[in-house]
Design brief:
Number of helices: 20
Radius of gyration: 25 Å
Strand content: 5-15%
CATH architecture of one domain: Alpha Horseshoe
Largest sheet: 2 strands, antiparallel
Distance between the termini: 21 Å
Number of strands: 14
Structural class: mainly alpha
Strand order of the largest sheet: 1-6
Helix content: 25-40%
Length: about 600
């Protein structure tokens, strides 16, 4: 951390365009004090926080779980799943990135109140309010990521988070700080989010009249033009009150979960209510879009995205990529000129119920092992390429069998599937990777999907009030799960008889909710963290299928080698070497 302050200033100096790295002109040697009169310089500190937001969807850490494996021998998640996870080899490390982001944000918060963003004093205060709210919301987000990746129990069984740093660090700072308790870290997250929500608009949108100006600004004589200048649609995709509420729900879910619940005061009811606050702002159950589960191939919506707008499924997204084919290049099957990197497991395939809603192992399911993909939950074929699926611009048939005659077959070449399946989710099928006619398309990465928030509510509400209890809200866990399954086409023919049969059983509802979360959010970077916060089995062998002459045989593909203490991640080894006050999590 000693280098972060210098790195921060160096990065900003680069952004300001020093002409001579070794002997910069006096006017170009920007110190932090320059931010007071240089609003662009100050905002550079804030924007660095945005640039460091981790992305879930494109990390593919599902390959370290029972959801998938990778055919890439060098894949970091494959390595840690098979016994190579250490405190010095941790592809899930958030320590450096998130702590650096917090340093930038603290630097920004130090100068923000004195920066000249506008000549008009009252408008300037509006800018100060808005950007302070953004910085605080982002700081809470990075604290959440630090807790998810590094919180854990010490050898004394004390549940700790990370050091809480609220002021910029410099060369004279004492970096040898102990980790704060998990509870203290959660309180800091909530405190930052409380302040962010006070300062930020629900959304960055233009208002149509002076009457719509919030009272605290209207009382100072501010007009709609002033408001739109500071809080208008130009700033879409930045932190808002709505996004802050979503982060609060995510953090509370983590804190209420079995791995953390006895070390803090956040309850399941808290998590449910925080998620419900977001859901109510989205129109309740009816706000869940019918096509939300295929957000990545809703091409009309994607192509219409512009000027910071978001499809109805998306609470917060990253920037729009206007010409992309990287996801397809990594994950298309070999015959479509891809590398087939993420291979879904038989474990995941078996988790999809039948279209009638029954798990495939249930006697009422009607599952036929000789025709395993018939009459299944429609999400299976939407998310996974199975043997005989069609894919790509020409709807090519993908043959994944062991006796296939193409490289799409099981273990044919290094880019072939290891499980008999390829990932379909996240990819557009209207992209051509042929060298003679390569094409690209638009795409975006979601930071928070509304479906995630609805699933947070379902999980927490079931734990707090049971399947049909609602804690005073207008819907229950049962209602949310019924809505999610219904929109996917599950249980339509029979009124979702399986869901009806378990709606009085909290334990069975828990299993179903966790499974729905697994299906809806597969390949989006959730399963790894979910298994750990649930204290669930993280060593389930990843299985696949070998198909020969049309006969299906389940085969083991990759064993998992996690130790019991690995429900929590490590503090980086290099940090514990430098600072003796920084206690390591047990086992690491």
């Amino acid at each position: 951390m000693k280098k972060i302050f210098l790195i921060c200033l160096s990065a900003v100096a680069v952004l300001t365009g020093c002409e001579d790295v070794f002997e910069p002109a006096v006017e170009n040697k920007l110190e932090l004090e320059n931010a007071y009169a240089n609003a662009t310089y100050a905002q550079g500190l804030l924007l660095n926080g945005y640039n460091r937001i981790p992305t879930n969807s494109w990390t593919y850490n599902d390959v370290a779980t029972d959801n998938a494996v990778s055919n890439d021998r060098a894949n970091g998640y494959r390595k840690i799943a098979t016994g190579q996870w250490t405190s010095s080899n941790n592809p899930l490390n958030q320590w450096s990135n998130s702590r650096a982001a917090i340093q930038y944000l603290n630097l920004f918060l130090q100068v923000n109140d004195s920066v000249n963003y506008a000549i008009d004093e009252e408008v300037n205060k509006m800018f100060i309010d808005r950007m302070k709210g953004e910085a605080l919301g982002l700081r809470a987000l990075f604290m959440f990521h630090l807790l998810e990746a590094h919180a854990g129990r010490t050898t004394e069984n004390e549940l700790l988070g990370v050091p809480i740093v609220l002021e910029p660090e410099n060369l004279n700072s004492d970096f040898n700080q102990p980790r704060a308790s998990f509870e203290a870290c959660m309180k800091q997250i909530y405190s930052d989010l409380d302040k962010a929500e006070e300062l930020l608009p629900l959304d960055f949108e233009n208002i149509a009249s002076d009457a719509a100006v919030p009272e605290k600004y209207a009382a100072k004589g501010r007009t709609k033009d002033d408001y739109n200048r500071v809080f208008g649609e130009t700033f879409r995709l930045r932190m808002t009150k709505r996004i802050a509420k979503g982060i609060r729900a995510k953090a509370a879910l983590l804190a209420a979960s079995p791995a953390y619940s006895d070390g803090n005061t956040t309850t399941w009811a808290d998590a449910a209510n925080y998620a419900a606050d977001v859901i109510d702002l989205n129109g309740g159950l009816n706000g869940l879009p019918g096509n939300g589960y295929t957000w990545y191939v809703n091409t009309a919506e994607i192509d219409a995205v512009a000027s910071g707008t978001t499809p109805k499924e998306i609470l917060w997204r990253g920037n729009l990529e206007t010409a992309s084919n990287s996801v397809e290049r990594e994950n298309y099957p070999p015959t479509l000129f891809g590398n087939g990197r993420v291979n879904p497991t038989q474990n995941l395939v078996d988790a999809f119920p039948m279209a009638n809603g029954y798990p495939i192992a249930d006697g009422a399911a009607g599952y036929d092992a000789t025709k395993p993909y018939d009459n299944r939950d429609p999400r299976l074929l939407a998310y996974v390429l199975v043997n005989g699926s069609k894919a790509g611009v020409n709807s090519s048939v993908i043959n994944t069998a062991s006796d296939a005659t193409t490289n799409d077959g099981l273990n044919k070449v290094e880019t072939s599937t290891r499980t008999g399946y390829y990932m379909r989710k996240l990819m557009r099928q209207d992209i051509n990777l042929s060298s003679s006619s390569t094409t690209t398309q638009k795409r975006y990465q979601p930071r928070i999907r509304y479906t995630e928030i609805y699933l947070i509510y379902a999980e927490a509400a079931n734990e707090a009030w049971g399947p049909t209890g609602n804690g005073g809200r207008a819907y229950s866990a049962y209602d949310v799960i019924k809505k999610i399954r219904n929109r996917a086409g599950v249980g339509i023919s029979n009124g979702d008889a399986y869901l009806e049969s378990i709606k009085g059983d909290q334990e069975k509802m828990r299993e179903l909710i966790r499974n729905e979360r697994r299906l809806e959010l597969c390949f989006e970077g959730f399963r790894f963290w979910d298994l750990r916060r649930w204290k669930a089995n993280i060593n389930e062998t990843a299985n696949g299928v070998s198909i020969v002459d049309g006969a299906y045989e389940i085969i083991p593909v990759e064993s998992r080698d996690y130790k019991p203490y690995m429900i929590y991640g490590p503090i980086p080894y290099s940090e514990t070497l430098k600072y003796d006050q920084l206690m390591q999590n047990q086992g690491w």
